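Data card: per-record layout.
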Amino acid sequence: MIEEADPVLFEIFKNSMHSIADEMALTVVRTSYSGVLRDNMDFATAFCDEEGTLVAQGLTLPGHLGSVPTALAAVMSRYQNDINEGDVFCLNDPYEGGMHLPDLFVIKPIFHEGHRVAFACVSSHHVDTGGRVPGSNAADSTEIYQEGLRIPPTKLYAEGKPNDTLFRIIEKNVRAPTLYFGDLRGQLSACHTAETQFLEVVNRYGREITMKLMRDLTDYAERVARAAISKIPDGKVSFEDWIDDDGVDHGRPIRLFVTIEKIGDTFKVDWEGTAKQVKAAINNTLSFTKAASYAAIRCILQADIPTNAGFFRCIDVSAPKGTIANMELPAPCAARGLTGFRMIDCLMGALSQLVPDRVFAASDGGNTGISVGGYDANRNPFIFVDFTCGTWGGRPWADGLDGNSNIYANMASQPVEVIEAENPLEILAYEFIKDRCGAGKFRGGAPYCREYRFTETEGVLQIRADRQRFKPYGLYGGYPGEPSVNIWDPDGNSTIMPPKFTETVKKGEIFRHEVAGAGGWGDPLERDPAAVAKDVRNEIVSRQRAFEDYGVVLQADKVDEKATQLKRAEIKRLRGWSKLPAVLREKPNIGA
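The structure for this 592-residue chain is written out next.
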């Protein structure tokens, strides 16, 4: 008989649950067909107890994982007592448990000797799910019915038998069924991996102890999270940021506004004041808004807190219905990822006022969605979906990361060689851009660009980007990062394109996207001159900007210490003050 209160057993069990969720993620990577899963890793894996409570999550996207409780609750509400051994459920309908149509949840209940003991869940972004635009994630759709095939909570398998009707409906509605079903099999494989490994745990410890340990794990996460939250000073703070536009009402900015109240061992996150839902497809489900709120707060707490339903209990998230944070039918939402990423920036701006020593400046604004689709000469479909992001804001203790995914994405870039081998595209440039990161004591991350040349006869190019008008903000004296740029035909009669668009693309045409630079943290005049010189050598910062922004004078590759001191003193006199106050500014600099 194993002692139920044994702390060693509990630690081993906790790590076992996390390992199962991680192994699910690795299974998806190993078995998926599409680059968006295999290389971008736009998916998430989760493991839940017999009641659908999130116990452990895998290595991947916080946005998906924070939405798992809503998806599983929708399945359990629909099927209640009709959940049997051998069943597998799926859904993507954002109005019944989903997030947006490309993200398909696959949920498998796990049974032991006739008793339900757990659920395995995988949410994956599929390259296409039908609709008016290849890739099914166009920002300029104006209602959900344009975006593709909606699947409410449905049995994909019933007691081990496939739902042939559903499989045929999917096959007839997506442009690339081979990719779709290949990725779907990857999801099923991950669920099977979880089932096999978890039943080994149950057989080792016994069913009752295993189920109790799962409940203990979520209760433990809640206890340690509340203990950590209680150390943060109480307070009520707000922050405002703006999305450039929605891609339909061009030039009309969209407000994001959040109020965070920290009371004792809980957080309240309220999105009252955020814009009404918009015509275009950047509206959020409440589940995705909750996921962004959970992820931002998780970032300011210690790393060893399990991120599961116990942690979520400490955070109350609300958003008025009919807003971009909590959409109502028939609002489209295919490009809702943009809003979720921008919510992270907004949340961090608020949290920086509660814990200024833990929060970095604005990142690049989240990933840019790039989709190219069409048909070759033999009418065979091709679809390329890529998500490009790569800068963190300057941190209170270090520079922002260069070429690293947004914290809400935790994704990777698709390799150039793979893109060119699998798609009618040539990548002409993939490189960091000079003078785009926000200056600061700790500078923002350096952004990069990619150039795509189309090699098929004709296709459709769809871009979902932002941060052209409203720059990534700096914090506490840090400068904002430079805006993103979309350029058509950069080497010819170049045209600056709006942040979001859908256009026909012809053979030989080139598109260039430049990621926004991240904001800086702290006064640039306090930056180590040697660090500025290193950035100049690495072609992240030009000599001119080193001189103008940082007051650093370089002779060859070396800092002229005396000239630098004089230049910085001159800049301070022109500012009219000698240094930043010891107490950080009351409100961060948005730097729009």
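Known properties of this structure: Residues 7-224 form one domain. The first strand starts at residue 43 and ends at 49.

See the next section for split statistics.
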